[in-house]
Amino acid sequence: MTISSKNSACLSLVNVILFSALAVPQCAKAEDPTPLRYGAGVTYQRDSNLFRLDGEATGEVQSDNITSGYAYLGFDTTLSRQRLYGNFNIGRAHFSRFSQLDYDKQDIKTGWSGDFPGQIQTGLVWTRTSQLANFADLNLPRRNVITRDAVRLDLDVPVIASWHIVAAGTVNQSRNSNTLDRGNDLDGHSAEGGVRYVTNYGNRLDLVLQQTNVDYPNRIPQDYGDSAYHERSAYLRALWSASGSSRLEGQFGYLQRRNEHYSNQDFSGPNFKLGWTWEPSGSTVVAVTAYRTMGAAGDNEYEAAATKALRISPVWAITGKLSLAGQIEAGQRSYIGAVHDVSLVPEREDNFQSLGVSLHYDLARWLGLDLGYRGERRDSNWPQRDYIDHTGTVTVQIGF
Q1: CA R_g for the chain
Q2: Of 25, 17, 46, 13, which Cα lies nearest the Cα of 394?
Q3: Where is the signal peptide (predicted)?
Q4: Alpha carbons 336 and 212: distance in angstroms, whole number
Q5: Which CATH architecture has domain 3-399?
Q6: Do the bridges between strand 246-259 and strand 267-281 make them parallel or antiparallel, or are there none, so unpaired?
Q7: Are the C-beta atoms of 46 and 86 separated by less than 8 Å?
Q8: Burial level of 175, CB count in 10 A (0-12/13-18/19+)?
Q9: Distance CA 45, CA 117 (A)
């Protein structure tokens, strides 16, 4: 990305924020008062193993304290049957020991949805994230900020009775700030279409076909990385309320990826994600998710793997001002497309576990406090890829 394009992106972002701040109050004159949220916060984080290294193999694990300041703006308004919403979170992270890793981060999502034209349900959303890449699996840890943009259009067309036609299109790109990682810049687009059945109670069942094309514009095909790939998938997804306190959500399908040059990196197989949400009381929610995915490995941006895992996430509203949330996850990751002699070095497999807990307390209507802890462990059949990490966070947020 050139300097001029960066400046254009920044100006566009400023224009969007100013438009949001000015337009929302004007809309409020026609309808009910528009919810407008704005504020700022500071997060202090202690990371015990910043570069995700195996302490037994390297003999040294680096820790650091990270301070992040941010400002945010959010709005959500409805005019007639049209909804306009946005959330903008922009900040900067500062590392105490490794200041060369300091970076600006963004988390933006804004969109529109409504019945247009006619009874066609339409949704358009733009998301942008800008985050420091994970250091796991890097032989030479380096600062690399990945900026991702995606624009998605969804259509739901009523046909007859409970039957609908659904379609969606997505355009996305990913850009890396470090020169050594520019080969992982990507441009992608996907299209999907299918049928939907909606019951009288709002339960939903979809059958969808999807085509995805991805190009790496800065990559020359090599043994460990192709310059483009194409994916085809078919899946069945459902959203079903089993009872007033229980809900099922799932997606089951089959994915096939074909690379342009190297068939040893092709793969295909089942993908699924099944979630169950249970609300035993008005103050307690438990979500259980089991999934199997094929694609980018969870700890890096440049390798593909088949990942299967189970996640449990409970939330308890202790009082109106105090809530406790947790998450535990365990799974296995099998890497795809080996570029080495598997008779000498086995294909890589990782087992991973994580445990997280967070406490939120509203000190006042405009002041919030969050305390959090997350522990991660990875055990690999490649011993130097093992790591254990502990992260603690404290966040103070002022919001209106």
Answers
A1: 23
A2: 46
A3: 1-30
A4: 19
A5: Beta Barrel (2.40)
A6: antiparallel
A7: no
A8: buried
A9: 47
**% of residues, the chain, pLDDT over 90:** 74
* pTM score, whole prediction: 0.86
Any residues with CB less than 8 A from the CB of 3 and at least 6 apart, and which?
A: none
Alpha carbons 349 and 359: distance in angstroms, whole number: 34
DSSP letters spanning 280-301:
EETTEEEEEEEEEEEEE-TT-S
Q: Average pLDDT for residues 326-344, to the nearest whole number? A: 84
pLDDT band at 303 (very low <50, low <70, confident <90, very high): confident
What letters, b where the CB count within 10 A reaches 16 and e where it falls short, cover 363-391?
Answer: eeeeebebebebbbebebeeeebbbbbeb
Rounded to whole angstroms, the Cα distance separating 286 from 316 reads 9
Contact between 185 and 217 under an 8 Å Cβ cutoff? The reply is: yes
Structure tokens at 160: 């007859």
Place of tokens 């089959």: 254
- Going by C-alpha positions, the residue among 255, 347, 336 that lies closest to residue 296 is 336
Whether 378 contacts 348, CB under 8 Å: no
Burial class of 105 by CB neighbour count within 10 A (0 to 12, 13 to 18, 19+): middle
**What is the spatial distance between Cα 309 and Cα 278, in angstroms, rounded to a whole number?**
19
Tokens of 121: 């349900």
Helix (H) or strand (E) holding 135: none
CB count in 10 Å sphere of residue 271: 18
**Residue 49 to residue 64: CA distance in whole angstroms:** 8
The H or E element spanning position 18 is: helix 3-28
2 three-state secondary structure: coil
